[in-house]
Fold each of these.
Amino acid sequence: MNSLSFLVKKSNGEKISMVTCYDYWSACLLADSDVDCLLVGDSAAMVMHGHASTLPISIEQMAWHVSAVSRGAAKKFIVGDLPFLSYRKDLTENMKAVEALVKAGAHAVKLEGAAGNLELVNYIVESGVPVIGHLGLTPQSVNMLGGYKVQGRDQQAADKLRTQSLLLEKAGVTALVLECVPSVLAREVSESLKIPTIGIGAGPDTDGQVLVLHDLLGMNKDFRPKFVRQFLSGQHLVVEALNNFHQAVVSGDFPSLKESFE
Ligand code: KIV
């Protein structure tokens, strides 16, 4: 997959799969999978560092995650999230943030929202860096949105999202993430754009789907939003393996002679 494959896949009617990835060992697993592209999301702040929102993560930390992922999955198309406020400064600072992610190994950057970002999107694209847009529930604006809620439910909000998606396409984005929007709206937006949409909590009719790795692996049994399907009972399996290790240690069964040096 490369930046041109997004359009090709859409025109061929092929769905795009994207999964978040934040570190080397899971990047190695994803490198062996058929998943099309990896998102080093700023959700790393929550998933990897235990914060309550994505806001605390810095550009340096994002670049650190991107570089680990690029060492583990060198052949995958890697999208790096520009973190909160890192692209809302002057052009020089904004481009420094872009540069940090690209030099760390990202093939594209993602940023949230359209208002106030269109010129920058165009500038980044003209600098040779593909940009992925993100509309609907934009977690960096959680304090404006009053929480993590489905967006675009009323007519006015839906119209705004339609308009913003067209403006982002015109500004040059390669693809558009649609997070937590009603399925009908996501379908309409997807049909109105030439670029692919990649949904999360946006129903079945977007051109691709993205999920957080740990959610799809069932790594957190207490986090089960409606839009997540757990493809593995990860938490159960991992805790069982850890308990087996513990039991083997306390019983003296591990290590065996075969697992020891003479
Ligand atoms: O940071 C992230 O994981 C994301 C996805 C939810 C799309 O932006």
Amino acid sequence: MSFIPSLPSAPSNTIFGIFILLVLNISTVYGQIGTDKQTIITRDLRAFDFDNKDTTLNGSWDFFWLEYRKGGISDTRGEVVQFPSFWTDKKSYNRSLPAAGYATYRVTILLPPHTKPLALRLPDINSSYQIYEGDSLICQDGRPGTTLETTQPHYSNKILPISGDTLRLALQIANFHHSRGGGMIDPIQIGSLERLQNAHTLNSAMDWFLTGLIFIMGLLFLGLYIFSHGDRPLLFFGLFCMLYSYRIVGTSTYPLHDVLPNMDWTWSIHLEYLSLFLSVSMFMLYTKSLFPKDAPQKLLTALASISLIFAAITILSSPLFFSKIIDIYLAILLASISLAFYIYWKATYNKRVGATIALLSSISISILGGFLILEYYGIVNLSKPIIFFSYLGFFSCQSLVLPFRFAYILNKAKEKAVLGLKAKNEFLSTMSHEIRTPLNSVIGMAHIMQGENPREDQKAHLEVLLFAANNLLGIVNNILELNRMEAGQLTIHNEPVNLHSIAKKVMIGIRAASNNPNVEFIQNTDSVANLLVLTDGQKFAQILANLLGNAAKFTKQGQIKCTIDILEITEQNIQLRIGISDTGIGIPLEKQAIIFDRFTQVDSTFTRNFEGAGLGLSITKQILQMQGVDLQLNSVFGQGSEFYWIQTFELSTPYIKNITTSVENTAPLSDMHILIVEDIKMNILVLQKFLTKWGATFDISTNGKEAVTQFDESRHHLVLMDLHMPVMDGYQATEILRKQGVKTPIIALTADVGSANEIAKAGMNDLVLKPYNPEKLLEVILNYLQPKFQERKIQA
Ligand code: ADP
């Protein structure tokens, strides 16, 4: 697999050596020249076309064990050996030589006359060498000596320019540091200087490019791991990439050593082996965590651990020792690759996310691995682009697997969150209905009892009852409001509104509730007393109630003011500054920004005496924000606070005046006949009481179906329609009536806060939310019955 390429350059393997020998013999064309006694091995390349191609110096060389010779023809013969090879290879050298030692390899090359400069390309040679041409030293890598102490190893690839027609080469090699012995696996190439140099530059560029790419990939995945709060495949793949990126430039052709020529050999060989063991280990852990259901966990952990043990040995021992154990490791490596391949195949079969891409990538790298092994045996010579694109294919595919998985997990989480939100909204909406419906009865009945001349003690009890019920309603409403805001369901219903009269009502309510004789409530809203503006009256009242409620809560004595000033007025619009101020405890400067956050209150030392859930200001601010307005605060700690905002309203035509007049009438609905459609007895009772009080008569249907049958356009002036009923709901009943051409106003009475759109769609004219304020209900009814009153006036 991907780890193979470094092997030829360092570790030894006897069987491979034999193969190489066999294969290389086939391609060698050598001659021998000289006297009877001394025959010099010569490679005759005089007929070779160096203009168009390059060749290698593979074949027979003279070998002098434990001798350093220079190049020349008047010298004695050595043994004939096949080169490139390692001197520990028994078959090639006909005897068993130790790994540690030194020797000279000699060959003479006859070159054609050439005008373009030629060069030798020298691979890394185990583990130090120098080259003589005749008597001159022309190249050196490390320092070959005769003992461990006098030898200094180094690996690099070199391009060595050559001149002349005859090259009498003597390659002096020393190895005392590596268990594989002296020598090399890659051939020495000979050819055009320009071509060899260009190939060298291109190969280095590809290696650096790949290294940069893989390193950045690694960084990216590590970053994703950190921010994904622990998705392990990201961590292991990130580490694998970073470790492997070193191997591209720090092994094989060693481009890193071109950039750092003085890099210590001991360091570099440690890093070379360490990066192999660690990256295999990370890859195994990556595969294990990527497809946990398909991967034999224990086996993978064992393989990863073995690689880690090899890494530990590498750190703790010398190259002479750890370069020996690589032969054993080769088996672990092959087992790891085969297992990974099997896991990807199984994951693909089981249709796991990203498995097909992972399988493709492992196929791509397995093909490369196969070629590398063939190259190792000398059967093929792999070109750099094949290696480059195979790596590119492998890393690109593997890195696609993770985003694929990331996106999949993200989508799943999103789906889950959406479902969760939906469930939460449904739950809250049901709860709202369930809590608000009985609360409607409680509040309604309390109102009715208040109007039926209760005894003094009963009056007091009723007040407490109403206060508590309204408080509970407030909390339920706040939580629901927040829920609707989160779900983006909150809508603003503009209607003609008299801000002055709303402020008046809210103030009266808050004053009564606070019941504090030391606080004076002042209303400065006369400037808008005769104006109707288009806004959501309910929301405006809610904002005032929140702010005035807070002011009352946090003010022991002094004043609470509600002020509306006109800043600008045109024919269509009016700009107002609306402020609620108090002389209460005030808010410390450092807390002024946070009190608008939900569930936030000023430090407990200030608030512990005050109840509240910390929702009011957050809701208020958001409601205003929906209308494009920002809630502002001026406050001095210990002196008081003012919450204010500036808002532009559209002016309305004052048609509502008529209704207000009617409301003052004690029986404003006299002679009006209304159809009540409602299934809950309590609610019917409450409605009956109110309607009777307002002078109306009524019929009752307990479900939609009954209503459709019972409705009579000539008798019923208006329908009050509950929505959720057995047999047939209010929506269906309305739709049927509208289809029959019924024009009579139908008003929905519901505890379901999120139903405005469906109500309109079904054909209902308006809605009144339960539990309702009786005045509000009357106001809406009157609004729709105005034409009837007009008719009646005309008839009269
Ligand atoms: P709560 O229901 O706790 O009052 P709010 O969101 O309405 O929640 O207010 C948040 C906090 O802001 C209050 O707990 C209080 O500490 C502070 N606060 C709000 N209005 C005033 C005010 N008029 N005077 C002093 N402190 C206030």
